[in-house]
Design brief:
This protein is mostly helical and about 210 residues long. It has one domain. The protein is built from eight helices and two strands; from the N terminus they run ααααααααββ. Helix 1 crosses helix 2 and helix 2 packs antiparallel against helix 5.
Length: about 210
């Protein structure tokens, strides 16, 4: 066990992707081999619910068709695998201190960013997402064949639309689980703990002068 811990400390990112791939393969194999995929598709057809990827829609599907619980759970577990891998590597390689560092990365902005810049960034992202979504809806309305793609089934000029929009932004299963999991993996130990981001790479030192250099 100590050998594995030492190997994880030396190559935490490599171990992250190895564990992630293992979880993904197991989840997909179970999903396709035990009939969960067929039951999930049948439940969606029976309820008539749109195929959305947010937690609210997943909960509604299970409430209406309880037999779909396994397919829904596996569908959530698959994008959750990066988070599981990140916590496993942090815990096994660096102990409780590593887990604490990973948990602290679940925040809207860092201390160095500050709340003012953080709010501006979140506002910019929100309006960018809204503009791109409306542009997608417009392109779909003008160019996509009728019935081929449904951007939204909620009337835009209604009180339900803002709630549906916020749900799609903040409760999307992939956005909440998979994308945050990959961001958690972008860390490595600076010395022991805390981690530092691997996308901040220190430049190599300048070469030492030699006898031949002028």
């Amino acid at each position: 066990m100590q050998t594995i811990t030492d190997m994880m400390k030396r190559r935490p990112v490599a171990w992250f992707f190895a564990i992630l791939l293992g979880i993904e393969l197991v989840v997909v194999a179970v999903f396709l081999s035990n009939g969960a995929a067929e039951v999930l598709e049948a439940a969606i057809r029976a309820t008539g619910l749109p195929e959305k990827t947010d937690f609210v829609s997943a909960g509604r599907l299970v409430a209406l068709e309880p037999r779909s619980w396994l397919g829904v759970s596996l569908s959530i577990l698959q994008p959750l695998s990066p988070d599981i891998a990140a916590f496993l590597v942090a815990g096994l390689a660096f102990g409780l201190a590593g887990v604490v560092v990973v948990v602290r990365r679940y925040r809207f902005w860092s201390r160095t960013v500050g709340w003012k810049r953080g709010l501006r960034t979140w506002g910019l992202m929100f309006f960018t997402f809204l503009a791109m979504s409306l542009a997608t809806a417009g392109l779909n309305f003008h160019f996509a064949p009728s019935g081929s793609f449904e951007w939204v089934n909620t009337p835009i000029l209604s009180w339900s639309f803002p709630l549906a929009l916020l749900t799609s932004i903040f409760l999307d299963i992939g956005g909440v689980t998979e994308e945050t999991g990959y961001r958690l993996a972008r860390v490595r130990p600076a010395a022991l703990i805390p981690f530092r981001s691997i996308d901040v790479i220190e430049p190599p030192p300048p070469p030492l002068p030699t006898m031949c250099s002028r």
